[in-house]
Amino acid sequence: MSRVKLVVFDIAGTLIEDHGEVIRAFANALRENGIPFVEDELKKWKGASKREVIRHFVTRADPKGAVEERVETSYRCFRAELERCYSEEVVPIAGALETFRWCRERGMLMATTTGFYREISDLVLNQTGWRDFFAANISSSDVREGRPAPYMIFRAMRRRASGA
Q1: Distance (Å, rounded) from C-alpha 85 to C-alpha 83?
Q2: Which of 33, 52, 126, 138 could form a disulfide with 152 if both were Cys (CB 3.0 to 4.6 A apart)?
């Protein structure tokens, strides 16, 4: 048995190709809600909590306005666009399936952690047919704080340890 017990994979850009879907969804949601942004700045937020990214731009645009209402409206637009993007096409990274098999052959458990919320990670794993490869699938919506906090990895480790 291998000394490595658990291998944790991110989803976008690691297991599936990243074609700018998240940035595109942010840009569309912010634009539709009249919230100014610079696309290069959006790219700097990659991997962060999606709602927090939107909150940053909304607060900067109008700190005294109805921030939470605008955040939630923009977040709903973001989700709809992102779900549309990933329901149209998910392209696996070359070699991903072979990597899963290699890990499995060596007795390693695998998990995913992602800045995506649960519905997107489920959509991706269902479309690729990879759900059964993983001992745990942890989304940012499953923990109190996403990256860079370690809570998703901690939860994956607990799931692995408990077998749940």
Answers
A1: 5
A2: 138
Residues 122 and 113: their CA atoms lie apart, in Å, by 12
Question: Cα–Cα distance between 19 and 86 in angstroms, integer?
Answer: 10
- Widest pairwise Cα distance in the chain: 58
Quick check: 69 and 136 in contact, CB under 8 A?
no
CB atoms within 10 A of CB 33: 19
Q: Which distant-in-sequence residues (6+ apart) come within 8 Å of 104 by Cβ?
A: 110, 133
Q: Is the pTM of this model over 0.85?
A: no
Q: Which tens digits make up the pLDDT trace of 32-54?
A: 999 999 989 998 888 777 888 99
